[in-house]
Amino acid sequence: MQETAKLIIDGKEYLLPVIEGTEGDKAIDIRSLRQNTGYITFDPGFGNTGTCRSAITYMDGEKGILRYRGIPIEQLAEHSTFVETAFLLITGQLPTREELTRTSVHLNDFSPLHENMKAFYQNYPPKAHPMGILSAMVNAMRSYYPELTDIEEEMNKTYLRLISKIRTMAAMAYRISLGERVVYPRPDLCYCSNFLNMMFDKVVVPYKIDPDLVRALNVFWILHADHEQNCSTTAVRVVGSGKVNIYATISAGISALWGPLHGGANQAVVNMLEEIQKNGMTIEDCIAKAKDRENPFKLMGFGHRVYKTYDPRAKIMKKMCDIVLSKIKRNDPLLNIAQKLEEVALNDSFFVEKHLYPNVDFYSGIMMRALGIPTNMFTVMFAIGRLPGWIAQWKEDVTDPETKIARPRQVYTGNFQRDYIPMKQRG
Ligand code: SDX
User: Fold this and answer.
1) What amino acid positions are annotated as catalytic residues?
2) What is the pLDDT of residue 185?
3) DSSP states of 68-122 as a string?
4) What SS3 class is residue 13?
5) How far apart are alpha carbons 121 and 169 in whole angstroms?
6) Ligand 1 centre and the CA of 426: distance in Å?
7) Sign (positive/negative) of CA torsion 417, 422, 425, 427?
8) Are 197 and 371 in contact (CB under 8 A)?
9) According to the CATH classification, is domain 265-371 in 1.10.230.10?
10) Backbone angles phi and psi of 302, in degrees to 5
11) 359, 318, 354, 142: which is closest to 230 by C-alpha?
């Protein structure tokens, strides 16, 4: 029996179908609402609005649950690699050994950039933000690589070409910003080792691959790989709904991720912690500022639209910080400040009542610092991790028969009709 929701408007009853998901999540299907009632719904930020059915990621914000294709994030962080998790997100299944080998070969084959793309980098000012460069370079791929065809094999190669090259593009942006020689990807290194080597290898001091740091980077990217319908994924789906090519669509996702309220928060967290350390701000001052509604200051890395408890990724990230810092035998004072901030905030009624807990960005910056990643590259690291999720969500969107071009409505609050006033009458 189809479950329905009853709406009464001006004494008239309307029955709207209810859609139920795998985990019992429910939605009222309002696709016929305007045509039947003349009304639309109003939900800035879409906090109460489902834009699609999706089988990729499941989150329960109240219980702090996150699963990719049904597998808990804790198990993937413990046992998987970033490349294997990317395969799982995009195809829906964990790869066989043969599929994983074939995927790794493609990732290696696709890792160099077209030599002519280097000219783009050389014409950016040295202080150009790498997120702007990355968004532009991914968009430029459309001009160098074949357009997406409907042939499954070709589409899979396009996904792997993007996943492989985004890593090379990021490292190249960093090296060129330093005026250092570009380090090319090596066929003998795995995905994460290759990235670290391209970032830090020096002629005089060859980069030493440390398996523990490579593991930490795998976990970092696994934790960022997808997160259902977040801001940047919504941007990817909206842009993709107009049948834009995948490169321009992913470029839009990178731009949406850049903001400090979204993926840019990891950079904002470290800037905030450095501010506290430099200005000798007390933890109490910081918490008081975050609680003051007149003050625009927010405790960056805290709060989440969906999680109303501890972000499960933040728990894992915090553990990885300890592992990496003890491995490199460094004590980061910012970690101590972050831990004190968390302790005070989680015992403060303001944060408890508003369900404000650390999110994935709160500790991720500290771990990236420990890996040697510069602060302005933090959101680039998030983008590399999120790319398989964007691809999986884009693929699901463009192959979903229910998908239509994104075109929301509005409540108009402007002028009533009025006539044009010729300039000579305007004074
Ligand atoms: C990511 O959506 C995703 O899944 C995103 C992400 C992913 O993997 O894709 O998880 C990645 O973007 C994580 C979030 C990173 N952003 C930050 O850490 C920035 C700081 N956080 C806030 O800006 C905020 O919490 C958001 C943007 C994350 C969520 O904002 P919401 O859901 O719109 O909540 P809100 O702004 O309406 O806040 C509710 C209340 C407000 O107070 P009142 O108006 O009710 O009095 O809580 C307050 C807010 O002022 N509040 C904060 C706060 N976050 C919310 N107060 C102080 N510090 C904060 N961090």
Assistant:
1) 304, 361
2) 96
3) ETTEEHHHHHHH--HHHHHHHHHHSSPPPHHHHHHHHHHHHHT-SPPGGGHHHHH
4) strand
5) 9
6) 45
7) positive
8) no
9) yes
10) -115, 145
11) 359
* Extents of the domains making up the chain: 4-50, 72-257, 265-371
Please give the structure tokens belonging to residue 403. Answer: 């998908």
- On the question of pLDDT at 146 being above 90, the answer is no
* Number of residues that this document lists for the chain: 427
Tell me, in angstroms, the distance from the centre of ligand 1 to residue 288's CA: 17
Which residue has the least CA distance to atom 30 on ligand 1? Answer: 305
Across the range 120-135, mean pLDDT stands at 94
Over range 388-415, report the average pLDDT: 97
Domain 4-50 has CATH 1.10.10: no
Per-residue pLDDT tens for 206-263? 999 999 999 999 999 999 999 999 999 999 999 999 999 999 999 999 999 999 999 9
Q: What homologous superfamily does CATH list for 72-257? A: Citrate Synthase, domain 1 (1.10.580.10)
Check: CB of residue 365 under 8 Å from CB of residue 307.
no
Best CA proximity match to 201, nearest among 163, 172, 162, 221:
172
Q: Which ligand 1 atom is the nearest neighbour of the CA of 231?
A: 2
CB-CB contact of 171 with 120 (8 Å) = no
Q: What b/e string do you get for 337-360 counting C-beta neighbours within 10 Å, with b at 16 or more?
A: bbeebbeebeebeebeeeebbbbb
- Record the pTM: 0.96
pLDDT number for residue 148: 63
Do 41 and 7 meet the contact criterion of CB atoms below 8 Å apart? no
Q: How many angstroms is it from 299 CA to the middle of ligand 1?
A: 9
Mean pLDDT, residues 157-178: 96
Q: Best substitution site from 258, 304, 382 to test ligand 1's pocket, by max atoms within 8 Å of Cβ? A: 304
Task: Kindly give the number of the ligand 1 atom that is closest to the alpha carbon of 303.
Answer: 25
Of 167, 176, 166, 184, the C-alpha closest to 124 is: 176
